[in-house]
Amino acid sequence: MERQSKGLTLADGLLADLGGPRTAGLLERLEAATPWDQLAQVVKPLYRNDTAKGGRPNVPIVVMLKVTLMQRWFGLSDPAMEEAMMDRLSFRRFLGLGVDDPGIDHSTIALFRERLHDAGLASELFDLVNTHLREKGLIVDEGTSVDATILEAPRGRPRKNNPDQSSKDPEATHTKKRGQIHHGYKAHVASDKNAMVTDYRLDTAKVHDINHFEDLTEHEPDGGKVYADSAYRDTKRRKKLEDRGVFYGVMHRRVRGQGELTEEQKHHNRLCAKVRGLCEMPFAWLLRSGRKRTRYRGLRKTGTDFGLWAMGYNLWRSLSIKTA
Q1: For residues 159 and 174, what is the distance between their CA atoms, to the nearest angstrom?
Q2: β-pairing, 158-159 with 173-177?
Q3: 185 bridge partner residues
Q4: Whole-prediction pTM value?
Q5: Which fold has domain 140-298?
Q6: Can you say whether residue 248 is alpha, beta or left, with left for phi > 0 and alpha for psi between -120 and 50 degrees?
Q7: pLDDT in tens, 66-100
């Protein structure tokens, strides 16, 4: 049984013209861009409780999905999302909450995310959204750009009452980039020419970028194109792709003993840089939405969060793309 809205009241009518028009307009477009009913059907089997035996009615699944995506769109934690629902009219309208309807507490939000995590549904929801966007012509499978970014995890500190214990994430690992030590995880992403995330892998920080290159490019059709920075350059992988007629658009780097790149290598890099740079757009949005630092402990929970973020990013990005 789902919780029912109390419906619109006189107060809702008086407040109809209030609230931020820019945010309200954005949410209206996201409402139309998202296949809510299809997503809800994936999540529905997680709800089997009988409220006749006690307990409160469930918040509607579509409402919980909207809350989950709004957190990714606006970079909100569970408590911050609960607070925003209390005082942002545009948020309440998007969720279908009238003035007299109760909000959704942060523990309910956390429980919903845990259910998605335990059932491993983040990747399934991501794939469903991508299928929807492909049907709309917003994801174009013509070339794949691959890149990775580090998600910093708290390094922790010894607990005051037990120095042998620490708040450090035990599954996060270290890596070194440009002389700086990082601790956390690494998100490996494939994107299309519209800068839409077509696939992803989440691993610990110490795993080299190239380890997931084949995972992310295996679906590139014969005669396609693959782009990446020089960290992905590998002779065996190049031959494997070129044997299928796939353009190997991986940036050249100087090898030992080479003073500078040849003119041909420089020309290749200039051509590839124009396309490869699109893969930076998801990471720029990741930084803006506050997801460059992990919020949860462990590889699987961080992976669930990143999958939900990637789904939210693609829906947000789709608003800026015109279909061919």
Answers
A1: 21
A2: unpaired
A3: 151, 204
A4: 0.87
A5: Nucleotidyltransferase; domain 5 (3.30.420)
A6: beta
A7: 999 999 999 999 999 999 998 888 898 899 887 77
